[in-house]
Design brief:
Length: 305
């Protein structure tokens, strides 16, 4: 019998997953708190008691509340899979920690990797990385996406995958900044190298594995996000570099400030690109001045070699 899937969140990725599952033989329901997105939506109390798999497609800052709401209605064996990539603003907890705290009695995992919603909607391939200690969820999702454009990889490095989802958004902003400043490909190539080096440092510091950073959940997702015109993180970087301000909303900005507190803002000297982004977002430093100071410091002190 095919699993009953409930997608919580009808934003870009939730809608894209609903589209990708159009050939799935089992029942799929999508729900959003914003009624204007789904005028004919069903009530949570109606659909969740039948859910075998809940795909959590809400912003990171709404994840905890969405999970707590869902827990009131789901059966005890329902699996939760989060596609949120960020850090809770209040607790500075990553999504794996939130899942462990809120739904520890249920099977759970994270779905990361290069899964740009716009490309999925255009029937272009996406590569998802399912991170879970329970490999049965991976098997279920393979069946779920069998007839879709989404291919799946598996890792049990849940902490590493969660952190990759955070840092790739943060460092994607830096590539947008580089583009917005009109820098050449040589310098952008250096920025990619530096971003990957710092991503590795941060993920390993918090218990993740290097292989995850250099895999689809890390490097693959970073490249997709950092060079895509569909990426809000990239767009934020471009606009703030060109205009000095922007109205673009993105996970990377929320994650940047929370991650700085998690790392400890006084111990960021080993991640100078991150520190430069923090100075732009938090301290409102002039973008060109901040980038110039970064490269002068790195190239003259060999700090980034």
């Amino acid at each position: 019998m095919n699993k009953h899937v409930v997608i919580l969140g009808a934003g870009e990725i939730g809608t894209a997953l609903s589209y990708a599952l159009k050939k799935y033989d089992g029942p799929v329901d999508i729900w959003d708190i914003d009624e204007s997105k789904l005028p004919e939506k069903k009530n949570l109390e109606t659909i969740l008691p039948h859910a075998d798999i809940v795909l959590l497609c809400v912003p990171s800052w709404a994840a905890r509340d969405a999970l707590l709401q869902a827990l009131k209605h789901v059966p005890k064996n329902t699996a939760f899979v989060s596609l949120s990539k960020g850090i809770d603003k209040k607790t500075h907890m990553t999504l794996d920690a939130i899942l462990q705290e809120v739904v520890a009695s249920h099977p759970f995992g994270l779905l990361g990797g290069p899964l740009l919603a716009e490309e999925i909607m255009g029937d272009k391939n996406g590569i998802g990385v399912l991170a879970s200690k329970n490999k049965g969820i991976f098997t279920d999702l393979q069946t779920l996406f069998k007839k879709s454009c989404i291919s799946l990889e598996y890792t049990n490095d849940v902490a590493g995958a969660a952190l990759c989802g955070v840092v790739k958004n943060v460092y994607a902003i830096s590539l947008g900044v580089a583009k917005g400043l009109g820098l050449g490909d040589n310098e952008i190539g250096w920025a990619v190298k530096q971003a990957l080096k710092e991503m590795n440092q941060i993920v390993i510091h918090f218990g993740g594995r290097q292989e995850t950073v250099y895999g689809s959940a890390g490097l693959g997702d970073f490249i997709a996000t950092g060079f895509s015109s569909f990426s809000s993180n990239y767009a934020f970087g471009v606009e703030i570099a060109q205009k000095g301000k922007t109205d673009v909303k993105c996970e990377g900005v929320h994650s940047l400030v929370s991650l700085a507190h998690k790392i400890d803002i006084d111990n960021l000297s080993s991640v100078p690109l991150f520190l430069m982004l923090y100075s732009i977002v938090h301290d409102k430093r002039d973008v060109r001045e901040a980038w110039s100071a970064l490269t002068h410091r790195c190239f003259n002190t060999k700090l980034c070699y």
